[in-house]
# Entry
Amino acid sequence: MSGSSPGTVRAVGVAVAIALCLLALSTAVASSGATQESVTVTVGNGSGTPGANVTVAVSARAANVSSYELSLAYDPGVVRVAAVEGGDFPEPISNDDPSAGWLNLTQASVDGFDDPTLARITLRVVGEPTEETGLLIGPAGTALFDSSSERIRVDSYRNGRVTVLEPDTPTPSATPTPSPTPTPSPTATPSPTPTGTSQSPTPTSTGESPPSTGESPTPTDRGSASGPMTPTESGPASPGDGQSRSPTPPRTTSGSGEDSLFPSSVLDSSFLLGVGFAVLVVGIGAGGYLLGKRRSDGSRDRLR
# Structure
C-alpha cells in the first residue's frame, strides 16, 4: 500500500462506504417488507353442543393499531350472535343481521396497540350435531388504522369455524346387587317340667246313652197352700249309675188351688159382662113397656 497513490486509496474508501450504505438500505427494505407481510386478521374456532354458548376472539397481528372495522358472515341456522364484548379495545359498536347472517363491528382508541385482541363474540349453538359454520371475514368491510389514522394494509385473513357436537351421554352407573338377608335360626323351646301333682283321669263316655227310667217329678196336691210347686229332684248321680236327672220347672197355681190359665179368665170375664149387659137391656125394655101401658090405661079411664 505504500506504493499506492493517494487517489487510489480514496477511490477504495468511497467504494467501501457505498457498499455499506447499500447493504444497510437493503436490510431496512427487507425488514419493512417482512413486517407488511405479517399483518393478519384472525377469527378463532369453537365447538359446542346444541343450546351451548361458544366464545371466539377476533385478533390482529399488526403494530400500532388504533381503530378497526370488521365484517363477519355466519350461518344463522347453526349459530346466533348472543353477545359482543371488547378485548384490548372497549366494547365495539355492533350491527347484527340474523336473517342474513352478517355481523359488523367497529371501534377506536386514542392509543395504538400492538397485536391487539379486537373483540370477543359469543355465539349460541342452534344447529344439529355434526353441523358446522364458517366465521368468514369480509375483506371489503374489514380494515385496520394506526394512530395517525393511516390505513394499515392487511395481507391475509384467517377465518374461524364453529362445530356442533353430540350431547354427552351419561354413563349408567352399575346397580349394586343387594346382599342376601341372613335367615335367623330357630330358637329351641324348652320342654315343660312335669310337676309332682297327680291329676285324676277324666272319665270318657262309652258312647251309650243312659236308659230312661220314665219317672218325672210329682207335683204337690192342688189343695195345698198357694205358691210354686216344688218338684222332686233326684239325688246326685254317682259316676257309676249312668243316669242324670234335671229338675222340672215349677207350675204356678192360683189362690183357690186351680191352675192359673190366662185365656180361661179372660173368657169368663167377657161372658159375665155380656150377660149383665143383656139383663140391663131387658130390664130397661120391660120398664118402658110397663110405663107405657099405665099411661094408656089412664087415658082410657078419662075418656069413659
In short: Helices lie at 6-37, 262-303.
